[in-house]
Amino acid sequence: MKKYCTLLLAAALAGCASTGSVMGERPAYLTATTEDVPNAAALTNRIYVPGLADTYVPQGLASSGPHLFVSSYKPTPELKSNTGPCRVFRVEKATGRLQGHFDIPPGTCTHAGGLAYAGNGKLFLSDTFQLFLVDIDKALATGTSAGAQKAVKIAGLLRGSYATFDGKDVWIGTWTKEQPKALMFRFDSRFFDTYDGQTVREDRAAESIPVPLEAQGAAFDKAGNLWVSASNSQWGKLYRLNRQGVVQASWDMPAGLEDLTVDDEGQLWGLSESGTQKYIGWATKFPYIFRIETGRLR
Asked: Where does the secretion signal sit in this chain (predicted)?
């Protein structure tokens, strides 16, 4: 333990990110966290996910400039519920401070599984059966995305388990344990203009690619690689895929790993739903947003 603390102090003195301190607000119910997680040394700049004290469960993650955005749902009518009202939080990346939030209109969003920054001040939010394109400034100003969004319902093979943006087009993917259904679908940049207020199926997708089972999130890096997270209550995985969906590498990660994002500096970030009040009984309690130092993955 003494050697570990010495290493953390050395990292801090060198100006490097340390795994020893966590930014943001620690909730009173969380008496202990799990620090001995897979690839812990690569998971730096940790921030408590917002909304923990109010029972929100984080799902989606996006980055824009100095901010990170987290989409969450509030289990309703009871903590064991898997659906509920959806909220998007804005967090200052450098300090972990909460800097506003907005809600999705009641009855239209139940899980908020995916989130991506789609450029031009817009967030792309995916729910299980509906997709949203939200004007960030308008939604934050009023506290709701009502009047600041376009929405498209999805059906057929499409599920909004998670979402990403490749710099031009939006993508959604399906969490599943069945390999034939483990797919990501791409929709061109005119998607919301063309289909706002309508329902679309998989035949409207520009393409689809395979992804690993139990995928929870995805993000394209600046080199065009696709990073995909997968997890359940027992384990977490991080995959690097090529543009065709072929797995190039994989690493063990904390249980409950959810969405991924790549910030403006090209750094990969993730977050975990473990340690939330809903999942406080899990062996892993790691309720953080964190930067993933890909060069330190083992």
From this structure: 1-24
| Burial tier of 131 (Cβ tally within 10 Å: 0-12, 13-18, 19+) | buried
The answer to whether residue 288 scores a pLDDT higher than 50 is yes
Whether 169 and 206 have beta carbons less than 8 Å apart is answered as yes
Could you tell me which residues are beta bridge partners of residue 252?
A: 237
pLDDT at residue number 20: 54
Does residue 10 surpass a pLDDT of 50? no
Q: Which helix (H) or strand (E) holds 124?
A: strand 122-126
Q: Total structural domains in the chain?
A: 1
Collect all residues with Cβ–Cβ distance below 8 Å to 269 and sequence separation of at least 6: 61, 63, 68, 260, 261, 262, 263, 289, 290, 291, 292
Q: Work out the mean pLDDT of the chain and round it to a whole number.
A: 93
Looking up residue 26, the CATH number of its domain turns out to be 2.40.128.630
- Say if pTM beats, i.e. exceeds, 0.85: yes
User: What is the rounded distance in angstroms from the CA atom of residue 36 to the CA atom of residue 47?
Assistant: 17
Could you list the residue range(s) of the whole structural domain that residue 170 is in?
2-296
- pLDDT at residue 18, rounded to an integer: 38
- Asked if 14 and 253 touch (Cβ cutoff 8 Å), the reply is no
Strand order in the sheet with 98-103: 57-64, 67-73, 86-92, 98-103
208: Cβ contacts below 8 Å, ≥ 6 apart: 183, 184, 185, 186, 202
Could you write out the DSSP letters of every residue in 127-181?
Answer: -SSEEEEEEHHHHHHHTB-TTSEEEEEE-TT---SEEEE-SSSEEEE---SSGGG
